[in-house]
Amino acid sequence: MDINLSPEQQRFAEQVREFISRNLPRDIAEKVRRDQHLDRDDHMRWQRILGKQGWHAFTWPEQYGGPGWSVIQRYLFEVISAEMDCPIIQPFGPRMAGPVIYTFGTEQQKERFLPGIRDSSVWWCQGYSEPQAGSDLASLSTWAEDKGDHYLVNGQKIWTSYAHHADWMFCLVRTSKGERPQQGISFVLIDMRTPGVDVQPILMLEGTHSFNTVFLENVKVPKENLIGEQDKGWTYAKFLLEHERVDNAAIGVTKAALRRLKRIASEEVADDGGPLIRDPLFHRKLVEVEAQLQSLEVTALRVLSQVASGEAPGPVASLLKIRGTEIAQRISELASEAVGAFCLPYQPDYLHDAGAEQPVGPAHAATAANNYLWRRCMSIYGGTNEIQREIIAKRVLEL
Amino acid sequence: MDLNYSEEQNMLRESVARFVRDRYDFGQRQQRLSAGEGAAFWPRFAELGWLAIPFSEDHGGIGGGTVEVGIVMEGLGRALALEPYLAHMVATQLLARVAEESVKARYLPAALGGESRLALAFSETGGRYHPAFCATTASPKGDGYVIQGSKNVVLGGQHADLYLVVARTAGQTREEQGLTFFLLERDHPALRVREYQTNDGTGAADLTFDQLEVSGDARIGDLHGAFAELEWALDLGVAYQGWEAVGAMSALSDATLEYLNTRKQFGKPLGANQALTHRMVDLFIAVEESRSSVLRAALAMDAESPSQRRRDLSLSKIAVDRCARFVGQTAVQLHGAMGVTNELAVGHYFKRLTAITATFGDSEWHARRIHRLDGASSREAGVEHGH
After folding, report:
1. Chain A residues close to B278, C-beta within 8 Å
2. Which chain A residues contact residue B285 at CB under 8 A?
3. If residue B151 lies in a helix (H) or strand (E), which one and from where to where?
4. Buried b (16+ CB within 10 A) or exposed e, B203-230
5. Start-end ranges of CATH 1.20.140.10 in chain A?
6. Residue B322: which of B361, B289, B347, B365 has the closest Cα?
7. Is residue B32 a contact partner of residue B39, using CB atoms and an 8 Å limit?
8. Residue B277: strand, helix, or coil
9. Residue B356 confidence (pLDDT) above 70
């Protein structure tokens, strides 16, 4: 048992640091440091730099053109990336579509789709939720009618993250009605430029645009875009959801958020004129959340150690999403609290543009307040935290 | 980086689990508790080698670390053990850390062999959890010292025959500088020991020193310089009792889960109610979080710089206390009225967990310690910026 990095792991960490410090564009790092929302170009610029290095699809095995890193190396890459203010790699291509395609797709599909994910020339989105199928995803009703060489897809997807940026969507559609709602679902890939695909924005309460409604009206999807077997899509969807839960712990990003919170609290002034971070009541809250984050980090390392030694992640992995998001939300709440009355001004523009005019109040306040609102979505996306509790109750505790 | 248990550690885990399962029945524990036989299994602990784990091979030890002792503590937490293993190990390790070779040669073999038990006497009335608070004085007299004062709630004090006592040889009552350790034998005529039961069944003692005279060789370690080592020992106690808390919490988690599956109301098991299952899930999560936290604490104890060690141990105490309160209270609630009876083990685990939150500093004391540490490090950083 050893919590320290081996010399080999230290060398790897050093390589990652050196690459990032040489290649990460300053303007992007600055936006991340300020906790601003990034636009498509910010993400794509950085992801293409990573793609050239072979690190965009950093979880992939060498067989499919990934770096073939161990789980510990992947963890180090993520933590160091967050520490150095890199944008989060958007998971829809490399973490979602990619693994499903190389696990369940045909050779032709692999050849066609994997290169664009590896080099980040293609932006993917996830067509899962529907207006009547949120937590109860299997009740989805977007219908794909068999037309011989293609499906004709009709329906509506909602909460589709960055559909307005996307070139392709991996999508769950119903191809038949079985006894159980999980039966008869198929996993298809849809070109977003196909006639009949209509993306409409959903504006969030802090004024940003990340989510969309995607209307699908008589969308022709060639059969060659079906992944795996028709009607077996739920199996592939579940495979993804399980990946997503582990990713959602986002330890590196949350540690960076705690550092940001501490920076804000050092700059803010308490009632007694000293730095807020020295205010005993505020400090007490900070310490409470730091204690929880430290436990979570070790929990993630325990899971990694299990996986590294060839075991399944085990029941403990299931708590990572719940606690990871709760802790991240608490940090964002404290950051909003830290800026005092400057949490009040509504300044959505400042969330996007590093070059915008001077915000009202300190620069960190404009993002802290809005991101508290924004991050309420964390305990809702990727399966609400209540759904996660149901999963633990049923699968782990067998209640 | 690898947080899996080693093969040896897994063997120890199995051996501890077997002992707890086969030998530490709750009903018999209650009988021993009423009969005042709380240290009944002490010779067995010695046979199993548990008393020798963290000591160097030169002193007859096994050369293990905090994780290995933690593994035993976890088992004892599960067993709700009455034996003063926690108190004895902290005091004995402290002695091994600060005493001269001649003192170690004299006392350690019996301590590791199970013939002698130690307790660390530091806390006093009016000091709350502050370890530097010490009104007990040791004044030089001839070649020795005269000790005057008293100690309260000495953990394991009722079972000990040797006390490692903190006394003030210089400075004011709350000062860190000026503390010195003394090793006292229980049968010293000027030492009064008042034993009592504690809520959790483990027991403690108050010690009174009435013009107690000792020779110069009763003094252990540096004159005036005991504080840093005392703080180390209390951190070790935090780490160990964290593992014990994990054992107690996981036993509560198992018991509660079983109760939800077996107890029926309204024609269905309690576990069919979502309001209860989600609380059960949160309970499960709290146990796993604590498990991670105490692992971190143990590794920090063995590896890190003193300032990082203090910070990590305090963070762990805060995390574990929160979970211990939550798990204890939730397990009692989910057992309904049975949870607050003397009959079921559940209430007794709850009492032990509650005691742990109030031992070696509560969460508030530890939060204040981090506040002081952070203040000191930001002042240092400020000086650097000034250059």
Report:
1. 386, 389, 393
2. 319, 322-323, 392
3. strand B144-155
4. bbbbbbbeebebeeebbbbeebbbbebb
5. 248-396
6. B289
7. no
8. helix
9. yes
Mean pLDDT calculated for residue range B190-217: 97
Say what the pLDDT of residue A315 is. 66
Tell me whether residue B1 is in a domain. Answer: no
pLDDT at position A245 is 56
Instruction: Tell me the CA distances in angstroms from B322 to B11, B95, B256, B357, B364, one per residue in order.
Output: 30, 31, 19, 8, 11
DSSP letters for A239-263? HHHHHHHHHTT-HHHHHHHHHHHHH
Compute the distance between CA of residue A53 and CA of residue A69 in angstroms, rounded to an integer: 14
- Kindly state whether B7 is in contact with chain A, defined as any CB-CB distance less than 8 angstroms: no
Which of A159, A310, A316, A188 has its CA nearest to residue A245?
A: A316
B residues 61..90 contacting A (CB < 8 A): 67
CATH architecture of A248-396: Up-down Bundle (1.20)
Q: Quote the pTM value.
A: 0.95
**Residues in B 256-315 with any Cβ partner in A closer than 8 A:** 257, 260-261, 271, 274, 277-278, 280-282, 284-285, 288-293, 295-296, 299, 303, 312, 314-315
List B145's β-bridge partners, or say none.
Answer: B140, B214
Parallel, antiparallel or unpaired: strands B144-155 and A185-191: unpaired
pLDDT at A246 exceeding the cut of 60: no
The ipTM, to two decimals, is 0.94
Structural tokens at position A395? 């699968």
Mean pLDDT, chain B, integer: 96
Q: Mean pLDDT across the stretch A387-393? A: 92
- Chain B hits for A298, CB-CB cut-off 8 Å, are 3, 292-293, 295-296
Residue A244 among the catalytic residues? yes
pLDDT of residue A354: 56
CB proximity under 8 Å: B 202-231 to A: none
Whether pLDDT at B385 is above 60:
no
- Nearest Cα of chain B lies from the Cα of A109 at a distance, in angstroms, of 37
Q: Tens digits of per-residue pLDDT, B3-45?
A: 999 999 999 999 999 999 999 999 999 999 999 999 999 999 9
Please report which confidence band the pLDDT of residue B386 belongs to, taking 50, 70 and 90 as the band edges. very low
Residue A202's DSSP bridge partners are A211
CATH fold of A124-232 reads Butyryl-CoA Dehydrogenase, subunit A; domain 2 (2.40.110)
Whether residue B334 lies inside any domain: the answer is yes
The count of residues in chain B is: 387
